[in-house]
Design a protein that fits this description.
Distance between the termini: 107 Å
Helix content: 40-55%
Number of strands: 2
Structural class: mainly alpha
Radius of gyration: 39 Å
Strand content: under 5%
Strand order of the largest sheet: 1-2
Number of helices: 8
Shape: elongated
């Protein structure tokens, strides 16, 4: 029953309209220091991210964010900080997944197909390593034991890497939620819009600079010489008999 409910929730999450701000492949480039911190201190990072996902209100805390059968039955209301510490150190994988589901359900975020393939590969590799270990224990072959140990190491490395990327993805998403992405830096204005130190006021286009307190000289040739022209108005203007008689003045 619990597995069917989990599958139903996963199906609903695939119908969400929003996407993660950064996919798993881009988290290392987006925030390398935090990704390294999550790789080496996974439980501590999981504690901080869960608390931040709850808006630092530990009264809302439930074990595994309410997505596991044990949720609400561990005395979380009495000592939520201690319960969260126990969760992240004893069930780190479930803790990271619960924080992920919490953010997905809050912001209607679906996981891309590429991210699903990476997470699925991690789970499959863990299962194959477990099967190899069981077979090697039953058969008792040294070669199978060595192969099983090598596969376990590879599965653990993949798990730690993917888990660190997932936690960095959660952190970036909460940075977006909290408005920590500032505006883009302004582009440098064109050169003609900038003023030099020795020229605080740019000159007017097409005019020479005027001395302080002196008007700009008029353009050469204006007004034209001998204006108005001679013999203006022409002789005989207006015509005789104009205006006609009877025209109101």
């Amino acid at each position: 029953m619990a597995s069917q409910e989990y599958l139903d929730k996963m199906k609903v999450r695939q119908e969400y309209r929003n996407l993660w701000h950064t996919d798993l492949m881009s988290t290392i480039q987006r925030d390398p220091p935090y990704c390294c911190l999550a790789f080496w201190c996974g439980p501590c990072v999981s504690y901080m991210l869960r608390k931040r996902a709850l808006y630092n209100d530990m009264s809302r805390y439930t074990c595994c964010a309410g997505y596991m059968p044990c949720s609400g039955r561990c005395g979380e209301s009495k000592c939520p900080e201690f319960c969260l510490c126990t969760e992240v150190f004893l069930c780190c994988c479930n803790s990271v997944a619960s924080t992920r589901f919490l953010l997905q359900d809050e912001f209607n975020i679906q996981t891309t197909k590429c991210d699903n393939c990476i997470i699925g590969f991690m789970f499959c590799l863990q299962q194959v390593a477990c099967i190899f270990s069981i077979v090697a224990m039953i058969v008792g072959s040294d070669e199978l034991q060595d192969a099983a140990q090598l596969l376990n190491c590879l599965a653990d490395m993949v798990y730690c890497t993917v888990c660190a990327c997932m936690q960095t993805q959660h952190k970036i998403e909460m940075d977006k939620r909290d408005g920590m992405f500032g505006p883009q830096p302004m582009a440098i204005p064109p050169v003609q819009h900038m003023s030099r130190l020795d020229q605080p006021i740019p000159p007017a286009a097409g005019y020479p600079p005027a001395a302080y307190g002196q008007p700009y000289p008029p353009p050469q040739g204006y007004p034209p010489a001998a204006y108005p022209p001679p013999q203006y108005p022409p002789a005989g203007y207006p015509a005789p008999g104009y205006p006609p008689s009877g025209y109101p003045k």
